[in-house]
Design a protein that fits this description.
Order of helices and strands: HHHHH
Shape: globular
């Protein structure tokens, strides 16, 4: 699912390469902290490398594997909030609040 240079992140691709913010957020809420930490620990050290790789392509015409990599980066941002800020998948002191966009940014 990912470019060859990121084959080490393949174990996370099926769970985290989601095209919509809603699906990425839902995946975070459905994850345990050990799952989030495992993803974060594997992907975060490669964040700059992933972004640099994606910068070599036009954003509005990404090949399939690069589009998946972009979705993985977006999911990493979701996971980082839980790992770095809250220590849990849900937002602290937000009750059952959920947020969803009505229009997705492109791509």
């Amino acid at each position: 699912m990912l470019p060859g240079a990121f084959a080490g992140l393949e174990p996370f691709a099926a769970r985290w390469c989601h095209a919509t913010e809603r699906d990425r957020y839902t995946a975070r809420l459905a994850s345990t902290m050990p799952e989030l930490v495992a993803f974060y620990d594997a992907a975060f050290p490669r964040f700059r490398e992933m972004v640099d790789h994606l910068d070599a392509f036009p954003l509005d015409d990404l090949p399939g594997t690069e589009r998946n990599l972009l979705h993985l980066v977006y999911s990493l941002v979701q996971a980082a909030l839980a790992v770095d800020m809250w220590g849990q998948p849900e937002v602290i002191d937000a009750g059952t609040a959920m947020y969803f966009r009505t229009v997705e940014p492109a791509p």
